[in-house]
Amino acid sequence: MFLSFRDEVESCLKNALKAAGIEADAELEESDHADLASSVSFKLASKLKKSPKEIAGEIAKHIRISDYKFIADATVSGPYINFFVNRSFLNDTIEAISEKKCDYGQLGYSDRIILEHTSTNPNGPLHVGHIRNSIIGDTLSRVLRKAGYDVETQYYVNDMGRQIAMVVFGLERYDLLEKKSDHAVAEVYISANRAIEKDHGLKAEVDGFMQKYEAGDKKIKEKFMGAVDLCLSGIRSTLERMNIKHDRFVWESDFVWSGTVRDIIGIVEQSRYSEIQGGALVLDLNEFGFEKEYVVKRSDGTSLYSTRDLAYHKMKAKDCDRVIDIFGADHKLISSQLVKVLEILGVKTPEIVIFEFVSLPEGSMSTRKGKFITTDELLDEVERAAYEEVDKRRSDLTEDIKRDIARSVGVGAIRYDIVRVSAEKSTTFDWKNALDFEKQGAPFIQYAHARCCSILRKSDDEPGFNPDLLIEKSEVDLIKKMSKFPLVIEIVSKDLKAHLIATYARELTELFNQFYRDAPVLSVEDELKKARLCLVDCTRIVICEALELMGIEAPEIM
Questions:
Q1: In the Cβ-directed half-sphere of 119, how many Cα atoms lie within 13 Å?
Q2: How far is residue 362's CA from residue 377's CA, in Å, rounded to a whole number?
């Protein structure tokens, strides 16, 4: 509903500017002092040789709000023109949420998007450093689908690197331990590395595996693909625990065997930026501010990861309207080079989200001190801690229900605490704080949803639609916040800032809690009770949808 109000205000301001004989864009912004505000007078001051306050007053003289459904008033405050919503806006917001339910927030976009995330090397389990990629990528894919986009999430499988050759080498010599497949593969990989460190002559065998695989040797292909599948099965299992699923796994080797890499090399050879250095084919990007060349083919004729990446992006660009990549900060340079090379080759470039890394507090989970912490270990530990908290608070529940709540709270705590921080900022995941029911993390938001459900369960009345009775400040503030849910989806879809969903969910929960403190629901007279029950039900719907966009479950009991 807020999007409709924004469109009305934009139209109203445009008409006022035109009537005042002023050429300018109708720029709008959110404000603490109004529902929308315009500071357009600041930009016009030097041009019109007048003060911003004087210009704002002149524009306001030509504002006609009577032509619009949702604008209650437009006032001037110094250099600002402030716009306010009316009762129809508030009532229509409640009606829209009540009618659309889980469809509330859909925007009707229809473009096709390919979004790549996670894509870790299949030589071991996911660890804490990987999951920010997965969580940001999955959250964005959920928001984009909510907006209406046709989204395909992809995991780019690096099956041609030295790491996988090392795994194959290790599987030839060592038995798999009886543990989760990705963890077992990691042990083999570590053992293989130790063996080669002791005997450097074994490196030639690993190199031979790589060359045979790129050449398409049938027996070696079976070994490589078997090793990768083994590891990926474990990785997929971990991702599923975090409510993350990829639509498609794209194997790097496919671009070699299909001839796509050969085609890319041919295109690069025709570029005026290509040259041969030491027998290798490279693209000289010095003109664009890159000191390091982009190597496309080695001197021995074999391709590189960078070559296959070009082929992969060429395929993605052909298959969709928007290409989105989620990369860690260590990919900042190579991703910039990739975009520039794709521009040179005339291929649609990806939108790239770069994230800084996530770590654990010093000494956290010290049983593995000095080693990386796997995501499985983190999930186990957080779920255990969540169970202790749930058991303490709700000893009346059955064991199965407590375990189920602990699982959803644990996963929610991890996902929320990681996605709530803007991608460009590094973050430390403090799992004890993340699980604190009193702090503003996932349990705080999940508990608000459970409270809504509890209120609705306790009432014998069906929520009734009489929103004219919702006039208290806490009620109006809550309705206004819910009206902005589609706006947040629009902004995240455009700017790819996943943390804004987390911020919105927290702020909505704060406003619901304020309403809960200020406005009794079950103890008031019938008509007001029904109206407030309707408001509670709408809040439940929007909180549930916000949690869903973050891949977090919305429990009805906590």
A1: 22
A2: 16
Residue length of the chain = 558
Per-residue pLDDT, 135: 97
Model pLDDT, residue 440: 81
Rounded to whole angstroms, what are the CA distances from 512 to 97, 295, 468, 499, 541? 16, 55, 19, 20, 12
d(CA 68, CA 5): 9
3-state secondary structure 379-446: HHHHHHHHHHHHHHHCCCCCHHHHHHHHHHHHHHHHHHHHHCCCCCCCEECCHHHHCCCCCCCHHHHH
pLDDT digits (tens, 9 = 90+) for 548-558: 999 999 999 98
Question: Which residues on neighbouring strands pair with residue 281, listed in sequence order?
Answer: 276, 297
Query: 419, 551 in Cβ contact below 8 A?
Result: no
Q: Hunting for tokens 């009489």 — which residue is that?
A: 466
378 and 496 co-located in one domain: yes
Q: Which domain holds residue 291?
A: 252-355
Q: How do residues 358-383 score in pLDDT, each as one tens digit?
A: 888 765 443 333 366 899 999 999 99
- How many domains are there within the chain? 4
Task: Please state, in angstroms and rounded to a whole number, the distance separating the CA atoms of residues 329 and 333.
Answer: 9
**End-of-domain residue from the set 294, 328, 355:** 355
pLDDT value of residue 365: 45
Compute φ and ψ for 334, nearest 5 degrees.
Answer: -65, -35
Contact 231, 163 (CB under 8 A): no
CA 35-39-40 angle, to 5 degrees, is: 125
Q: Give me the pLDDT at residue 464, please.
A: 64
pLDDT of residue 362: 64
Picking from 180, 212, 244, the residue at the C-terminal end of a domain is 244
DSSP 309-321: HHHHHHHHHHH-S
Strands 112-116 and 322-328: parallel
3-state secondary structure of 520: coil
What is the rounded distance in angstroms from the CA atom of residue 12 to the CA atom of residue 4? Answer: 12
Q: Are 436 and 410 in contact (CB under 8 A)?
A: no
Q: Does residue 123 fall inside a structural domain? A: no
d(CA 540, CA 94): 12
pTM check: above 0.70: yes
Separation between Cα atoms, residue 382 and residue 174, nearest integer Å? 33
pLDDT tens-digit series, residues 310-347: 999 999 999 999 999 999 999 999 999 999 999 999 99
pLDDT of residue 186: 93
Strands 71-77 and 80-85 come out as antiparallel
| Regions of the chain with pLDDT less than 50 | 364-370
Longest Cα separation, the chain: 86
